[in-house]
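Next comes this protein:
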Amino acid sequence: MVAMEQWSWPPSYDDSYLPDPSSRYWFKERETMPAGDREAAILQRLQEVCAYAYENAPFYKRKWDEAGFHPSQLKSLEDFESRVPVVKKADLRAAQEAHPPFGDYLCVPDSQVARVHGTSGTTGRPTAFGISAQDWRSISNAHARIMWAMGMRPGDTICVAAIFSLYMGSWGALGGAERLGAKAFPFGAGAAGMSSRCAQWLDILKPAGFYGTPTYAIHLAETAIKDGRDPRKFGLKYMFFSGEPGASIPSIRERIEDLYGAKVYDSGSMGEMTPWMHVGGSKETPGMLCWQDIVYTEVCDPATHHRVPYGQRGTPVYTHLERTSQPMIRLESGDLTVWTNDPTPCGRTYPQLPMGIIGRIDDMITIRGENVYPSEIEAALSQLNGYGGEHRIFITREGTMDEMLISVEQEGEGWARGEDTRKAFHAQVATQLHNMLGLRSVIEIVAPNTHERTDFKAKRVIDDRVAFAEMQARHLEASS
Protein backbone atom coordinates (compact mmCIF):
# COMPACT_ATOMS: atom_id res chain seq x y z
CA MET A 1 0.00 0.00 0.00
CA VAL A 2 1.23 3.50 -0.78
CA ALA A 3 2.26 5.47 2.30
CA MET A 4 0.23 8.61 2.95
CA GLU A 5 1.45 11.61 4.92
CA GLN A 6 0.47 11.34 8.58
CA TRP A 7 -2.35 8.89 7.86
CA SER A 8 -2.78 6.44 10.69
CA TRP A 9 -5.49 4.84 12.77
CA PRO A 10 -6.37 6.25 15.22
CA PRO A 11 -5.46 9.60 13.63
CA SER A 12 -2.40 11.33 15.03
CA TYR A 13 -1.42 14.65 13.47
CA ASP A 14 1.48 16.96 14.16
CA ASP A 15 -0.47 20.09 15.12
CA SER A 16 2.55 22.28 14.39
CA TYR A 17 2.90 21.12 10.78
CA LEU A 18 2.38 23.62 7.96
CA PRO A 19 3.27 23.21 4.28
CA ASP A 20 5.61 25.55 2.48
CA PRO A 21 3.57 28.75 1.88
CA SER A 22 4.16 28.44 -1.87
CA SER A 23 2.75 24.91 -2.00
CA ARG A 24 -0.66 24.36 -3.57
CA TYR A 25 -1.13 21.29 -1.37
CA TRP A 26 -1.26 20.58 2.35
CA PHE A 27 -0.42 16.89 1.78
CA LYS A 28 0.70 16.61 -1.83
CA GLU A 29 0.96 12.81 -1.89
CA ARG A 30 -2.48 12.25 -0.44
CA GLU A 31 -4.15 14.84 -2.66
CA THR A 32 -2.56 13.94 -6.01
CA MET A 33 -1.94 10.18 -5.81
CA PRO A 34 -3.47 7.88 -8.45
CA ALA A 35 -7.08 7.08 -7.55
CA GLY A 36 -6.39 3.34 -7.47
CA ASP A 37 -3.62 3.75 -4.89
CA ARG A 38 -5.86 5.94 -2.76
CA GLU A 39 -8.70 3.41 -2.96
CA ALA A 40 -6.35 0.67 -1.69
CA ALA A 41 -5.44 2.90 1.26
CA ILE A 42 -9.11 3.76 1.86
CA LEU A 43 -10.04 0.06 1.88
CA GLN A 44 -7.49 -0.61 4.61
CA ARG A 45 -8.82 2.34 6.60
CA LEU A 46 -12.42 1.11 6.18
CA GLN A 47 -11.36 -2.29 7.50
CA GLU A 48 -9.83 -0.62 10.55
CA VAL A 49 -12.79 1.73 11.14
CA CYS A 50 -15.38 -1.05 10.78
CA ALA A 51 -13.50 -3.39 13.12
CA TYR A 52 -13.20 -0.56 15.64
CA ALA A 53 -16.91 0.33 15.45
CA TYR A 54 -18.01 -3.32 15.66
CA GLU A 55 -15.97 -3.77 18.84
CA ASN A 56 -16.87 -0.48 20.53
CA ALA A 57 -20.40 0.46 19.39
CA PRO A 58 -23.35 -1.85 20.19
CA PHE A 59 -25.31 0.15 17.58
CA TYR A 60 -23.11 -1.03 14.72
CA LYS A 61 -22.70 -4.59 16.04
CA ARG A 62 -26.47 -4.97 16.27
CA LYS A 63 -27.17 -3.37 12.88
CA TRP A 64 -24.47 -5.33 11.09
CA ASP A 65 -25.34 -8.65 12.73
CA GLU A 66 -28.93 -8.19 11.55
CA ALA A 67 -27.64 -7.50 8.02
CA GLY A 68 -25.30 -10.52 8.09
CA PHE A 69 -22.17 -8.38 7.84
CA HIS A 70 -18.94 -8.77 9.79
CA PRO A 71 -15.88 -6.53 9.28
CA SER A 72 -13.79 -9.60 8.42
CA GLN A 73 -15.87 -9.90 5.21
CA LEU A 74 -14.68 -6.52 3.95
CA LYS A 75 -12.25 -7.37 1.11
CA SER A 76 -13.05 -4.63 -1.43
CA LEU A 77 -14.87 -1.33 -1.81
CA GLU A 78 -17.57 -3.29 -3.63
CA ASP A 79 -18.02 -5.39 -0.48
CA PHE A 80 -18.40 -2.20 1.53
CA GLU A 81 -21.09 -0.91 -0.83
CA SER A 82 -23.03 -4.15 -1.08
CA ARG A 83 -22.68 -5.56 2.46
CA VAL A 84 -22.74 -2.58 4.82
CA PRO A 85 -26.24 -1.19 5.40
CA VAL A 86 -26.81 2.56 5.37
CA VAL A 87 -27.53 4.54 8.51
CA LYS A 88 -30.37 7.06 8.47
CA LYS A 89 -30.88 10.07 10.72
CA ALA A 90 -33.93 8.33 12.20
CA ASP A 91 -31.63 5.50 13.32
CA LEU A 92 -29.43 7.99 15.17
CA ARG A 93 -32.39 9.66 16.89
CA ALA A 94 -33.78 6.28 17.96
CA ALA A 95 -30.39 5.21 19.33
CA GLN A 96 -30.09 8.41 21.35
CA GLU A 97 -33.63 8.11 22.67
CA ALA A 98 -32.88 4.57 23.85
CA HIS A 99 -29.36 5.38 25.10
CA PRO A 100 -29.23 9.08 26.01
CA PRO A 101 -27.57 11.39 25.46
CA PHE A 102 -25.13 10.26 22.73
CA GLY A 103 -26.59 6.91 21.64
CA ASP A 104 -24.91 3.51 21.67
CA TYR A 105 -22.80 4.45 18.67
CA LEU A 106 -20.49 6.47 20.93
CA CYS A 107 -17.22 4.54 20.73
CA VAL A 108 -15.30 6.24 23.55
CA PRO A 109 -16.06 6.51 27.27
CA ASP A 110 -18.37 9.36 28.16
CA SER A 111 -15.51 10.89 30.14
CA GLN A 112 -13.59 11.43 26.87
CA VAL A 113 -16.30 13.63 25.34
CA ALA A 114 -14.78 17.12 25.24
CA ARG A 115 -17.35 19.02 23.17
CA VAL A 116 -21.14 18.71 22.81
CA HIS A 117 -22.83 20.07 19.71
CA GLY A 118 -26.10 19.18 18.04
CA THR A 119 -28.52 19.56 15.21
CA SER A 120 -29.72 23.08 14.44
CA GLY A 121 -33.38 22.23 13.81
CA THR A 122 -36.10 23.58 16.10
CA THR A 123 -38.58 20.68 15.88
CA GLY A 124 -38.40 17.04 16.92
CA ARG A 125 -35.78 15.38 19.06
CA PRO A 126 -32.36 17.01 18.54
CA THR A 127 -29.33 14.85 17.80
CA ALA A 128 -26.40 15.30 20.20
CA PHE A 129 -22.85 15.19 18.89
CA GLY A 130 -20.29 13.99 21.43
CA ILE A 131 -16.79 14.82 20.22
CA SER A 132 -13.53 13.81 21.86
CA ALA A 133 -10.55 16.15 22.13
CA GLN A 134 -8.63 13.93 19.72
CA ASP A 135 -11.43 14.10 17.17
CA TRP A 136 -11.63 17.89 17.49
CA ARG A 137 -7.94 18.10 16.64
CA SER A 138 -8.52 15.91 13.58
CA ILE A 139 -11.50 18.05 12.56
CA SER A 140 -9.48 21.26 12.86
CA ASN A 141 -6.60 19.75 10.87
CA ALA A 142 -8.98 18.70 8.08
CA HIS A 143 -10.67 22.11 7.90
CA ALA A 144 -7.31 23.90 7.87
CA ARG A 145 -6.17 21.64 5.05
CA ILE A 146 -9.20 22.43 2.89
CA MET A 147 -9.04 26.16 3.70
CA TRP A 148 -5.42 26.01 2.51
CA ALA A 149 -6.69 24.59 -0.80
CA MET A 150 -9.02 27.59 -1.08
CA GLY A 151 -6.00 29.88 -0.80
CA MET A 152 -6.08 30.95 2.87
CA ARG A 153 -2.73 31.13 4.63
CA PRO A 154 -1.24 31.68 8.11
CA GLY A 155 -1.56 35.29 9.13
CA ASP A 156 -4.74 35.91 7.12
CA THR A 157 -7.67 37.32 9.09
CA ILE A 158 -10.75 35.10 8.72
CA CYS A 159 -14.16 36.36 9.79
CA VAL A 160 -16.59 33.69 11.00
CA ALA A 161 -20.00 35.32 10.56
CA ALA A 162 -22.31 32.49 11.53
CA ILE A 163 -24.24 31.72 14.70
CA PHE A 164 -22.13 30.35 17.55
CA SER A 165 -24.52 27.87 19.11
CA LEU A 166 -24.88 24.11 18.82
CA TYR A 167 -24.47 24.64 15.05
CA MET A 168 -21.23 22.96 13.94
CA GLY A 169 -20.44 25.14 10.93
CA SER A 170 -19.23 28.20 12.80
CA TRP A 171 -17.14 26.18 15.26
CA GLY A 172 -15.57 24.08 12.51
CA ALA A 173 -14.59 27.19 10.55
CA LEU A 174 -13.14 28.71 13.73
CA GLY A 175 -11.19 25.54 14.53
CA GLY A 176 -9.83 25.42 11.00
CA ALA A 177 -8.80 29.08 11.08
CA GLU A 178 -6.97 28.61 14.38
CA ARG A 179 -5.19 25.46 13.18
CA LEU A 180 -4.20 27.26 9.99
CA GLY A 181 -2.43 29.90 12.05
CA ALA A 182 -4.80 32.61 10.84
CA LYS A 183 -6.15 35.54 12.83
CA ALA A 184 -9.53 34.12 13.75
CA PHE A 185 -12.28 36.75 13.99
CA PRO A 186 -15.37 34.98 15.41
CA PHE A 187 -17.90 37.75 14.88
CA GLY A 188 -20.92 35.45 14.95
CA ALA A 189 -24.41 36.46 13.81
CA GLY A 190 -27.99 36.51 14.94
CA ALA A 191 -28.50 39.55 17.19
CA ALA A 192 -30.43 42.63 16.10
CA GLY A 193 -28.25 45.22 14.41
CA MET A 194 -25.38 42.76 13.95
CA SER A 195 -25.20 43.16 10.17
CA SER A 196 -24.38 46.87 10.30
CA ARG A 197 -21.82 46.22 13.02
CA CYS A 198 -20.31 43.33 11.06
CA ALA A 199 -19.94 45.53 7.97
CA GLN A 200 -18.22 48.16 10.11
CA TRP A 201 -15.76 45.60 11.47
CA LEU A 202 -15.05 44.19 8.01
CA ASP A 203 -14.31 47.71 6.82
CA ILE A 204 -11.86 48.18 9.70
CA LEU A 205 -10.10 44.80 9.70
CA LYS A 206 -10.02 44.08 5.93
CA PRO A 207 -10.02 40.29 6.47
CA ALA A 208 -8.89 37.92 3.72
CA GLY A 209 -11.48 35.22 4.47
CA PHE A 210 -15.17 35.07 5.39
CA TYR A 211 -17.44 32.19 6.43
CA GLY A 212 -21.24 32.24 6.67
CA THR A 213 -24.31 31.33 4.64
CA PRO A 214 -24.90 32.73 1.13
CA THR A 215 -28.15 34.34 2.27
CA TYR A 216 -26.39 36.19 5.05
CA ALA A 217 -23.54 37.33 2.79
CA ILE A 218 -26.02 38.95 0.42
CA HIS A 219 -27.98 40.50 3.29
CA LEU A 220 -24.73 41.79 4.80
CA ALA A 221 -23.70 43.41 1.51
CA GLU A 222 -27.14 45.01 1.12
CA THR A 223 -26.92 46.37 4.67
CA ALA A 224 -23.41 47.70 4.08
CA ILE A 225 -24.49 49.50 0.90
CA LYS A 226 -27.49 50.99 2.71
CA ASP A 227 -25.08 52.25 5.39
CA GLY A 228 -22.90 53.89 2.74
CA ARG A 229 -20.15 51.23 2.68
CA ASP A 230 -18.76 49.46 -0.38
CA PRO A 231 -18.39 45.69 0.30
CA ARG A 232 -15.68 45.48 -2.36
CA LYS A 233 -13.51 47.72 -0.16
CA PHE A 234 -13.58 45.17 2.68
CA GLY A 235 -10.66 43.48 0.94
CA LEU A 236 -12.09 39.96 1.10
CA LYS A 237 -10.34 37.40 -1.10
CA TYR A 238 -11.97 34.12 -0.08
CA MET A 239 -15.59 33.53 0.96
CA PHE A 240 -16.64 30.00 1.86
CA PHE A 241 -20.14 28.91 2.69
CA SER A 242 -22.28 26.06 3.96
CA GLY A 243 -25.83 25.54 5.22
CA GLU A 244 -27.52 26.30 1.87
CA PRO A 245 -26.94 25.29 -1.76
CA GLY A 246 -26.64 28.92 -2.92
CA ALA A 247 -22.86 29.08 -3.34
CA SER A 248 -23.04 26.39 -6.04
CA ILE A 249 -25.81 28.15 -7.97
CA PRO A 250 -23.94 30.12 -10.66
CA SER A 251 -26.12 33.22 -10.51
CA ILE A 252 -25.93 33.47 -6.70
CA ARG A 253 -22.21 32.73 -6.63
CA GLU A 254 -21.60 35.39 -9.30
CA ARG A 255 -23.76 37.88 -7.41
CA ILE A 256 -21.74 37.42 -4.20
CA GLU A 257 -18.47 37.62 -6.13
CA ASP A 258 -19.66 40.82 -7.78
CA LEU A 259 -20.79 42.35 -4.49
CA TYR A 260 -17.52 41.65 -2.69
CA GLY A 261 -14.94 41.14 -5.44
CA ALA A 262 -13.95 37.87 -3.74
CA LYS A 263 -13.65 34.24 -4.78
CA VAL A 264 -16.63 32.16 -3.59
CA TYR A 265 -16.37 28.51 -2.49
CA ASP A 266 -19.16 26.11 -1.63
CA SER A 267 -18.52 23.61 1.13
CA GLY A 268 -20.37 21.52 3.62
CA SER A 269 -22.32 18.32 4.03
CA MET A 270 -23.92 17.51 7.40
CA GLY A 271 -23.26 18.40 11.02
CA GLU A 272 -23.00 14.69 11.83
CA MET A 273 -20.16 14.42 9.31
CA THR A 274 -17.99 17.25 10.61
CA PRO A 275 -15.40 18.04 9.26
CA TRP A 276 -18.26 19.27 7.08
CA MET A 277 -15.85 20.77 4.54
CA HIS A 278 -14.85 17.26 3.39
CA VAL A 279 -16.84 18.26 0.33
CA GLY A 280 -15.33 21.64 -0.43
CA GLY A 281 -13.71 23.70 -3.12
CA SER A 282 -10.17 24.48 -4.14
CA LYS A 283 -8.74 27.70 -5.53
CA GLU A 284 -8.43 26.38 -9.10
CA THR A 285 -11.21 23.75 -9.39
CA PRO A 286 -14.87 24.80 -9.69
CA GLY A 287 -17.55 23.04 -7.68
CA MET A 288 -16.70 20.84 -4.71
CA LEU A 289 -14.10 18.12 -4.26
CA CYS A 290 -14.79 14.91 -2.34
CA TRP A 291 -11.79 14.69 0.00
CA GLN A 292 -12.00 10.90 0.07
CA ASP A 293 -9.16 10.34 2.54
CA ILE A 294 -11.00 12.40 5.18
CA VAL A 295 -14.56 11.17 4.60
CA TYR A 296 -15.23 8.42 2.08
CA THR A 297 -18.09 9.61 -0.13
CA GLU A 298 -20.28 7.45 -2.34
CA VAL A 299 -22.99 9.00 -4.51
CA CYS A 300 -25.73 6.42 -4.52
CA ASP A 301 -29.12 5.58 -5.93
CA PRO A 302 -31.52 6.60 -3.10
CA ALA A 303 -33.50 3.36 -3.52
CA THR A 304 -30.66 0.79 -3.66
CA HIS A 305 -27.81 2.70 -1.96
CA HIS A 306 -25.46 1.40 -4.64
CA ARG A 307 -23.09 3.88 -6.25
CA VAL A 308 -24.32 5.54 -9.43
CA PRO A 309 -21.87 5.93 -12.35
CA TYR A 310 -19.96 9.21 -12.63
CA GLY A 311 -22.02 11.81 -14.42
CA GLN A 312 -25.28 10.70 -12.80
CA ARG A 313 -27.40 12.13 -10.01
CA GLY A 314 -27.76 10.53 -6.60
CA THR A 315 -27.56 11.04 -2.86
CA PRO A 316 -24.21 11.20 -1.03
CA VAL A 317 -23.53 8.45 1.51
CA TYR A 318 -20.70 9.34 3.89
CA THR A 319 -18.23 7.39 6.04
CA HIS A 320 -15.81 8.93 8.54
CA LEU A 321 -12.21 7.81 8.17
CA GLU A 322 -10.79 9.89 11.04
CA ARG A 323 -13.47 9.99 13.75
CA THR A 324 -13.21 7.81 16.83
CA SER A 325 -15.96 9.17 19.12
CA GLN A 326 -19.16 8.95 17.03
CA PRO A 327 -18.03 7.58 13.66
CA MET A 328 -20.65 7.69 10.95
CA ILE A 329 -20.41 4.65 8.66
CA ARG A 330 -22.49 4.85 5.47
CA LEU A 331 -24.69 7.71 6.70
CA GLU A 332 -27.31 8.56 4.08
CA SER A 333 -27.36 12.32 3.61
CA GLY A 334 -30.73 12.74 1.89
CA ASP A 335 -29.12 15.42 -0.29
CA LEU A 336 -29.03 15.47 -4.07
CA THR A 337 -25.92 15.91 -6.22
CA VAL A 338 -24.15 14.88 -9.41
CA TRP A 339 -20.59 13.54 -9.26
CA THR A 340 -17.84 13.36 -11.84
CA ASN A 341 -14.25 12.11 -11.88
CA ASP A 342 -12.54 14.32 -14.44
CA PRO A 343 -9.00 15.73 -14.29
CA THR A 344 -8.95 18.88 -12.14
CA PRO A 345 -7.15 22.18 -12.77
CA CYS A 346 -5.70 21.97 -9.24
CA GLY A 347 -4.22 18.52 -9.86
CA ARG A 348 -6.11 16.81 -7.03
CA THR A 349 -7.34 13.37 -7.97
CA TYR A 350 -10.60 13.38 -6.03
CA PRO A 351 -14.10 12.96 -7.48
CA GLN A 352 -15.95 16.24 -7.89
CA LEU A 353 -19.45 17.60 -7.30
CA PRO A 354 -19.46 20.23 -10.08
CA MET A 355 -22.92 21.53 -9.13
CA GLY A 356 -22.28 21.19 -5.39
CA ILE A 357 -25.19 20.00 -3.25
CA ILE A 358 -28.27 20.69 -5.37
CA GLY A 359 -30.73 20.43 -2.51
CA ARG A 360 -32.42 17.88 -0.28
CA ILE A 361 -34.45 15.03 -1.69
CA ASP A 362 -37.08 15.57 1.01
CA ASP A 363 -37.25 19.29 0.08
CA MET A 364 -38.56 18.29 -3.33
CA ILE A 365 -42.04 19.63 -3.97
CA THR A 366 -44.45 17.62 -6.10
CA ILE A 367 -46.96 19.88 -7.83
CA ARG A 368 -49.57 18.26 -10.05
CA GLY A 369 -47.22 15.33 -10.68
CA GLU A 370 -44.13 17.46 -11.41
CA ASN A 371 -41.08 17.37 -9.16
CA VAL A 372 -39.71 20.81 -8.25
CA TYR A 373 -36.59 21.63 -6.21
CA PRO A 374 -36.56 25.01 -4.41
CA SER A 375 -32.92 25.50 -5.44
CA GLU A 376 -34.01 25.43 -9.11
CA ILE A 377 -36.46 28.27 -8.45
CA GLU A 378 -33.76 30.21 -6.62
CA ALA A 379 -31.36 29.69 -9.52
CA ALA A 380 -33.96 30.86 -12.07
CA LEU A 381 -34.83 34.02 -10.14
CA SER A 382 -31.21 34.92 -9.46
CA GLN A 383 -30.56 35.13 -13.19
CA LEU A 384 -33.09 37.94 -13.61
CA ASN A 385 -32.25 41.63 -13.67
CA GLY A 386 -34.58 43.27 -11.22
CA TYR A 387 -34.73 40.41 -8.70
CA GLY A 388 -34.70 41.92 -5.22
CA GLY A 389 -32.84 39.06 -3.55
CA GLU A 390 -35.64 37.29 -1.65
CA HIS A 391 -38.72 35.23 -2.44
CA ARG A 392 -41.13 32.80 -0.81
CA ILE A 393 -42.76 29.70 -2.24
CA PHE A 394 -46.27 28.98 -0.97
CA ILE A 395 -47.85 25.60 -1.71
CA THR A 396 -51.61 25.40 -1.23
CA ARG A 397 -54.37 22.96 -2.01
CA GLU A 398 -57.96 23.73 -2.84
CA GLY A 399 -60.00 20.59 -3.29
CA THR A 400 -57.73 18.15 -5.10
CA MET A 401 -55.65 20.72 -7.00
CA ASP A 402 -52.21 21.83 -5.82
CA GLU A 403 -51.15 25.40 -6.48
CA MET A 404 -47.77 27.05 -6.17
CA LEU A 405 -47.58 30.78 -5.48
CA ILE A 406 -44.17 32.41 -5.72
CA SER A 407 -43.85 35.80 -4.06
CA VAL A 408 -40.86 37.62 -5.57
CA GLU A 409 -39.27 40.84 -4.42
CA GLN A 410 -38.43 43.39 -7.11
CA GLU A 411 -35.33 45.49 -6.55
CA GLY A 412 -35.93 49.02 -5.32
CA GLU A 413 -35.21 51.04 -8.46
CA GLY A 414 -37.52 48.95 -10.64
CA TRP A 415 -40.27 48.95 -8.02
CA ALA A 416 -40.10 52.74 -7.75
CA ARG A 417 -40.69 53.18 -11.48
CA GLY A 418 -44.29 52.17 -11.07
CA GLU A 419 -46.92 49.73 -12.26
CA ASP A 420 -45.73 49.26 -15.85
CA THR A 421 -42.25 48.19 -14.70
CA ARG A 422 -43.77 45.82 -12.16
CA LYS A 423 -45.97 44.22 -14.83
CA ALA A 424 -42.98 43.78 -17.12
CA PHE A 425 -40.99 42.16 -14.32
CA HIS A 426 -43.98 39.93 -13.51
CA ALA A 427 -44.05 38.70 -17.12
CA GLN A 428 -40.29 38.13 -17.05
CA VAL A 429 -40.51 36.07 -13.85
CA ALA A 430 -43.45 34.03 -15.15
CA THR A 431 -41.64 33.20 -18.40
CA GLN A 432 -38.37 32.34 -16.67
CA LEU A 433 -40.00 30.01 -14.16
CA HIS A 434 -42.21 28.33 -16.74
CA ASN A 435 -39.20 27.66 -18.95
CA MET A 436 -37.19 26.34 -16.02
CA LEU A 437 -39.90 24.24 -14.36
CA GLY A 438 -42.28 23.40 -17.20
CA LEU A 439 -45.05 24.22 -14.73
CA ARG A 440 -47.59 26.99 -14.37
CA SER A 441 -47.40 28.88 -11.09
CA VAL A 442 -49.02 31.98 -9.62
CA ILE A 443 -46.55 34.89 -9.48
CA GLU A 444 -46.75 37.78 -7.05
CA ILE A 445 -44.38 40.75 -7.29
CA VAL A 446 -43.81 42.53 -3.99
CA ALA A 447 -41.83 45.52 -2.75
CA PRO A 448 -38.18 45.32 -1.67
CA ASN A 449 -37.62 43.97 1.87
CA THR A 450 -41.09 42.43 2.08
CA HIS A 451 -39.62 39.08 3.10
CA GLU A 452 -37.56 38.67 6.25
CA ARG A 453 -33.79 38.38 5.91
CA THR A 454 -31.94 35.88 8.06
CA ASP A 455 -28.48 35.42 9.51
CA PHE A 456 -28.85 31.66 9.20
CA LYS A 457 -30.42 29.23 6.74
CA ALA A 458 -33.20 30.87 4.74
CA LYS A 459 -36.58 29.07 4.91
CA ARG A 460 -38.31 29.94 1.67
CA VAL A 461 -40.94 27.20 1.31
CA ILE A 462 -44.27 27.36 3.16
CA ASP A 463 -46.34 24.25 2.44
CA ASP A 464 -49.93 24.98 3.47
CA ARG A 465 -51.07 21.57 2.21
CA VAL A 466 -50.11 20.11 5.59
CA ALA A 467 -52.30 22.59 7.42
CA PHE A 468 -55.10 21.95 4.89
CA ALA A 469 -54.90 18.18 5.48
CA GLU A 470 -54.91 18.66 9.25
CA MET A 471 -57.94 20.93 8.96
CA GLN A 472 -59.75 18.29 6.88
CA ALA A 473 -58.92 15.62 9.46
CA ARG A 474 -60.29 17.76 12.29
CA HIS A 475 -63.45 18.45 10.29
CA LEU A 476 -64.01 14.74 9.63
CA GLU A 477 -63.38 13.86 13.27
CA ALA A 478 -65.84 16.53 14.45
CA SER A 479 -68.54 15.38 12.04
CA SER A 480 -68.23 11.65 12.79
About this structure: Confidence is low (pLDDT under 50) at residues 467-472.
